[in-house]
Amino acid sequence: MYEKIKLDYSSLDPYITEKTIYINYYNYYGNYIDNLNKLLIKNNYDYIYSMEELIDRIDMFNLEDRDDILYNLMGSLNHELFFYTMSPYGKNKPIGNIKNKIEEEFGTYDKFREEFIKKALELKGSGYTFLVVNDSKLQIINTSVEDSVLLYGFIPLLVIDMWEHAYYLDYEDNKLDYINNWFKLIDFEKVEKIYNKK
Ligand SMILES: [Fe+2]
After folding, report:
1. Among 59, 76, 101, 112, which one is least packed by beta carbons within 10 Å?
2. pTM summary value
3. How far is the CA of 162 from the centre of ligand 1 (A)?
4. How far is the CA of 123 from the centre of ligand 1 (A)?
């Protein structure tokens, strides 16, 4: 069985309140993981691959379940990365290799931040804004609904959940304040780890 990553859902308060995290972590992420496991068991899956590896192997499942498996798989992966890369204790400024790469490609961290915020505000409807590695280059990308950047062969390093359930209770429609406060929660030690593993 795939499991949710652990999270102290009060720890990101006040930037993201306990109530909002609870809804996102249990009602969305939790449901995606539960639905995914149910569908995989129904398909006699033996859990030999990581969730990331399953994206490219979706055709091993019954045709009638593939869309559902893919949707719940991507929803699980998107939320896993979102929750994993936030921490109240983390280094919220880039370090190490990812710091150098961000400066090489965007000029400064502030320029990267500006571009990321601009992109996130351009997103229409529910979706995500990602920082990815695309062919050894960093790129900021929006995806719709639960689409994963893994579908395009990109490596996700960092993501913000831009569905209304992720911010509306705390910020109503003030997406800019949500994004600015999310930047205070980014744990760049974890982003660095993902970047070095890629
Ligand atoms: Fe979510």
Report:
1. 59
2. 0.96
3. 8
4. 15
Q: Under a CB-based contact definition with an 8 Å cutoff, are residues 189 and 95 in contact?
A: yes
Q: What strands lie across the sheet with 127-134, from one edge to the other?
A: 137-144, 127-134, 155-161
Domain range list for the chain: 18-84, 96-197
- Expressed in angstroms and rounded, the spacing between residue 188 Cα and the centre of ligand 1 is 21
Please tell me the distance between residue 100's alpha carbon and the centre of ligand 1 in angstroms: 30
Which of 83, 75, 73 lies closest to 145, judged by CA? Answer: 75
Confirm whether 18-84 and 96-197 share one CATH topology.
no
The protein residues having their C-beta less than 5 angstroms from ligand 1 (an ion) are 24, 28, 161, 163, 166
- Cis before residue 88, ω within 30 degrees of 0? no
Q: What is the mean pLDDT of each run of 10 residues along the chain (198 residues)?
A: 88 93 96 98 97 96 97 98 91 95 98 98 97 97 97 97 98 97 96 94
Distance from residue 197's CA to the centre of ligand 1 (Å): 25
CATH of 18-84, one of 1.10.287.990, 3.30.70.360, 3.30.530.20, 3.90.226.10: 1.10.287.990
CATH topology of domain 96-197: minor pseudopilin epsh fold (3.55.40)
